[in-house]
# Entry
Amino acid sequence: MNKIPQFLIAAPSSGAGKTTIARGLMGLLKRHGYTVQPYKCGPDYIDTKFHTLMCGCPSVNLDSFMASEDHLRQIYAHYAKEADVCVVEGMMGLFDGFDRDKGSCSEVARLLSIPVVLVVDAKSAAYSLAPLLAGFLHFNEAVHIIGVIFNRVGSPRHVSLLRQVCDDLRVECLGFLPRNNELEQSSRYLGLDFSQEDNARNLLVDEMEKHIHWQRLLELTMKERPVWGNDSVFSFPFAEQLKPNGNKIWVARNEESFSFLYQEHLDILRNYGEVTFFNPEDNQLIPQDLDLLYLPGGYPEKHLPALYAAAQTRQSIQTFAENGGHVLAECGGMMYFCQAIVHEEGETEMVGFLPYKVSIRPQDRKLSLGYRQLTYEGKLLHGHEFHYSQFLGETPPSVTQVFNAKGEVMPTPFIRKKNVLASYTHLYWGA
# Structure
């Protein structure tokens, strides 16, 4: 198939319902037999989980700050090879980036030359949405908005008024979702609650089937299947210390405490050898002949009793690190590698290789959020930081200075002890 539908779901602002619409479209297309390749703009780890549940295949992150333009196009084309449809979910508002629209989902749409479907929250509004939509339609002619889906629509009369808006602006109304409290997802931590996902998924797809003109959407977004270059370029700490192939790599992974993983990173590691997933809560011994141990982020603070009880796991990881084993520990993985996590009831001992304590107590909570960049061993690395926990006492010494997207100095340490690299920064390994 030389042409397939490809589009990006965006909104004027956060909270408009683009995640709901994106998931619903993915599930609807899957129901009708399409192989859907999902993507998510930005460094988000939560929405990609929803995508995977809907589509039955891993969702891939697309970030124009952390990846070069060529690499962004390359990974988009790479994961689209077997797809019948490509659906990209945006982030924040369409033109919201780290510097005006730089790094925004509008930039991703332009770089990939894919059209945009705009999700508009129509609650308590009707024809006043016309000037809002007119601004988005004409703000940047390089961003091609091909249609609108209205969310939280109240009545048939409301639908009629919203269709008038689209008729007057000469943009297609691709349907709507009615106001329905059961479709709302409750917030939890940085993301969304999965506890009612099965019921919500079926209800959402049923509603999309009734109210969305999905066949017309596919007609409007048909484009040549993406093809870009031959080889992805990537760089991650310790890559040069690994053999070309045949390495033994263990990755901590479970539903919550170690769950912040990019699909692209797992595929990169598989290029280096055999990847084995393990759950640090299962109290198993870690082999001492590993070539790399990767501890990604997540919510270890929600599983402190289980992590503490898995003493064999903690001790074998400590021994591996003390003996010079290569370890990459990010955010929650770094917290796990510290001496203890301090909470309201006291503190819980962790691996202990890093002689620091991290606090999750309410009085110590402080939001640290944003893109990060740093130079390590002559290489410019990019990443993202999002956490509330903080080190107790003095900030640990850093082997390099960390900056934000605008080049401003940030206090985030990048810690090196023996062959362990640890930081709050979730690194991106693409070029």
